[in-house]
Amino acid sequence: MKQNKTYIKAQKALQSGNYRKCVTLANELIQNSPENLVYLMLRGEAYLHLEEYELGLSDLAKSVEIDGKNIVALINFSVALIRTNRQGDAKEILEYVLEIDPNNFDAHINLGNVYQSLHQPETALKIAFRAVELKPGSTLAYNNLATALGDLRYIEESRQALITAYQIDPTSITAAINLAQVEEKLGDRRSAISLYEKALELKNITPSYTNLIKYYLSYSYLYFGDLEKGWTHYDLGFSPLLPIGAIRSKRKFKQQKWNGEPLAKGQKLLVWREQGLGDEIDFSSCLFDLALFEIDVILECDSRLVDLFKRAFPKFEIREELIGYDAYPFKEDFDYHCPVGSLPGIFRKEITKFKDQPPLFIPLNSLFEKFKALLEPFNEKILVGISWRGGKLSANRNLNYTGLVDWCDLLTDKRIQFVNLQYGECESELVEAENKFGIKILRWPNIDLKNDLESLVALIANLHFVVSVGTAVSSIAPATGINTLLLTKKSWIMLGQDKAYPWFSKVTPIVANLDEHLAQKIPDAHNIIIEAQIK
Hints:
By secondary structure, this protein is an alpha/beta fold.
């Protein structure tokens, strides 16, 4: 009788979203009946909701061992396999489910997700259409269809599927979020904001979804220049209530987060890096503001930046990022912490707070002179560094990058000597452009442009201009004090500005429309360089 009452309580806890309580009650049940299929499935499902996937996988694997034809157990087991990156195993389980029950809706939904993660979008789309056939009135089916269409770059079709999902169930928070994100991709950020804000008013919204939506909203607010609201919501990216995949950083701290308040004498503040190198450098422009405070600062940064930051901020203690295996700091020698991406919310709540600053990076004199000598034979020309793509290419990222052969208008100007700043494997692209345009692009194979930032900064410091798409180079160059022409589409990082890049005054953004390829803006970069030299 006691077990039955406990089971009822555990079920109610699961249904009400109190997953931790459900686990606690299920533990009691399983302790008395360790082979009970129902109890193991109950706890396994609770673990999935808690995103403790390995624990859920263990319970659900045991459930399947007990009853290998239990459809619910098999499907939940497949979810645990997907969440623990065992897509191949999940695929086998789901195909087995469809052998038992060919019209199982949940199996089609999960199998479609598997094929998406296995980079087989055509198969995923076929399965998504089948799921819609099985349940034409399902919001989940149309959500899934929209994702599959989006993976194949059918963005407008994806939008229509999400509109259908939203019309079927206007209280579906997932549909609202996904539709808002598609509207953003299509350039309609006002509609995205409206969808997000309406979702926040839904009665069925959970604290987790509230924080997630506000975090997503932060990018739209910042895009339009609403810095006060944008930075406030941006910090919700650290909320423990967010899904693991959405959290800005998985780092953990026992110390309180610093929000700009005065610190007692002797207390130390740890400022730590997050996100990619380019964002880290942009946000680090706020360290000049922090340096004005009488605060003992420890700065943890990308290891490639340690010596550069030591010269920029000699009063700070600079070290590379140190994280223990448990995500807590390796050293507990500070009293407060602050991610570098949260500094703008303290120091830059208005666009007028972005002021001209000295260069962030100062090259080593020996390296500066080395590159000065290497470039001396080309002193009569305009020295222009170029970076045309990121190090990792994908279909989505290529929309915001270019091919080097697209730079014909600029590369064929004999008044300019080009210097390669592109890191990674790009020699074939350089040779192709050289042969096609009859030019020579300077590069030195012994210099690691990705990891040897001291050499990269010294090289850049000898140039007249840098032309780059949105990569780390487009942040390193202006941080070194060099005029940088940024080929970009308007994004949140521009904070509502069209003709200025708030983080560094040395950047001139050359903004392409949503339907334009960045390569179409190469002539604009060319004109700016030539006009500047004439003046």
